[in-house]
């Protein structure tokens, strides 16, 4: 047996048991990641991003002293209790949260507080792979699509196009456009939040600017989605509602996300350049 396995036999065994115990949660997340019209298609990438950021710190982690953290077993017991209760009640979201709690407790138990601090971001980033409960998704999506439809209607009128909002329906002069759940902007917001979190982590700026970069993902996602609704509504009025269905609808979705990324990148670079100048 190699020295690595001898030193890490207990953590490796604990990791195997951990993975086996949470197989039902992995299956649930997998189903949500690849479901039709999913909001979490990025979820499968999150563990790999976490692994990459931890791997980047491998040399630093090897030099970090290992010391078992007090209270780690208490946190472990809390996570297991939450998992058991959530499993009985079939609440998968809290079961997934318990998985992260147990993971943190195991890191504290085997490696200590100093190691956890160095990999705090990659571990916290795992939250982006956990899908929100469906009722939360539905409620947020409903409010966001009403908001997007209202703002888009005002902008269309400002552009000289007749538009009246009725719920999530934008009534134009010769046609109408329905702002459905897919066009609510929630999908872009969730994905862009994960991307913004990564970008805030890698830029060389103070913590308050990193928080600012992350928070800008909210208005950026909303603004770009409203622009998409306005564009599709304009095309529907000029060329017919049939033209905005299918391929064009999907293409504008990708373009909107690309625009959102460019805006996020620009803000990050501006804040980073401002830091260099000061």
Summarize the structure in words.
This protein has 278 residues and is mainly α. It has 2 domains: 3-131, no CATH class; 135-277, no CATH class. The protein is 72% helix and 4% strand. It contains 14 helices and 3 strands. The protein has helices spanning 3-7, 9-21, 23-33, 46-56, 58-63, 72-89, 92-110, 113-118, 120-125, 134-158, 186-202, 207-215, 217-239, 247-277; strands spanning 163-166, 169-172, 176-178. Strands 1-2-3 form a 3-stranded antiparallel β-sheet, with helices on one face. Strand 2 and strand 3 form a beta hairpin. Helix 11 (186-202) crosses helix 13, helix 11 (186-202) runs parallel beside helix 14 and helix 13 (217-239) packs antiparallel against helix 14. It is elongated and about 75 Å long. The termini are far apart.
Q: How many domains is the backbone divided into?
A: 2
**How far is it from the N-terminal to the C-terminal residue, by CA?**
54 Å
Structure annotation, total helices:
14
Helix content: over 70%
Strand order of the largest sheet: 1-2-3
Give the percentage of residues in beta strands.
under 5%
Number of strands: 3
What is the overall silhouette? elongated
Please describe the topology of this protein.
Elements: H1 3-7, H2 9-21, H3 23-33, H4 46-56, H5 58-63, H6 72-89, H7 92-110, H8 113-118, H9 120-125, H10 134-158, E1 163-166, E2 169-172, E3 176-178, H11 186-202, H12 207-215, H13 217-239, H14 247-277
Antiparallel strand pairs: 1-2, 2-3
Helix pairs in contact: 2-7, 6-7, 10-13, 11-12, 11-13, 11-14, 13-14
């Amino acid at each position: 047996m190699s020295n690595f396995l001898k030193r890490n036999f207990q953590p490796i065994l604990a990791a195997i048991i951990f993975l086996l115990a949470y197989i039902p949660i992995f299956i649930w997340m997998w189903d949500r990641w690849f479901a039709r019209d999913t909001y979490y298609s990025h979820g499968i990438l999150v563990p790999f991003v976490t692994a990459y950021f931890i791997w980047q710190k491998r040399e630093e982690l090897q030099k970090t002293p290992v010391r078992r953290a007090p209270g780690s077993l208490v946190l472990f017991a809390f996570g297991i209790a939450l998992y058991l209760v959530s499993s009985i009640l079939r609440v998968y979201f809290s079961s997934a949260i318990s998985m992260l709690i147990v993971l943190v407790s195991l890191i504290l138990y085997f490696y200590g507080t100093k190691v956890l601090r160095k990999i705090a971001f990659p571990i916290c980033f795992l939250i982006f792979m956990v899908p929100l409960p469906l009722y939360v998704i539905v409620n947020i999506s409903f409010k966001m699509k009403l908001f997007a439809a209202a703002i888009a209607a005002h902008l269309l009128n400002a552009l000289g196009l007749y538009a009246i909002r009725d719920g999530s329906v934008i009534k134009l002069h010769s046609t109408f456009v329905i702002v459905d759940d897919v066009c609510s902007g929630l999908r872009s917001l969730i994905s862009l939040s994960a991307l913004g979190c990564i970008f805030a982590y890698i830029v060389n700026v103070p913590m308050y600017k990193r928080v600012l970069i992350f928070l800008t993902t909210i208005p950026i996602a909303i603004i770009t989605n409203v622009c998409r609704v306005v564009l599709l509504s304009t095309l529907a009025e000029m060329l017919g509602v049939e033209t905005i269905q299918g391929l064009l609808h999907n293409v504008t979705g990708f373009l909107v996300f690309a625009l959102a990324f460019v805006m996020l990148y620009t803000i990050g670079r501006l804040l980073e350049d401002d830091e260099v100048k000061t």
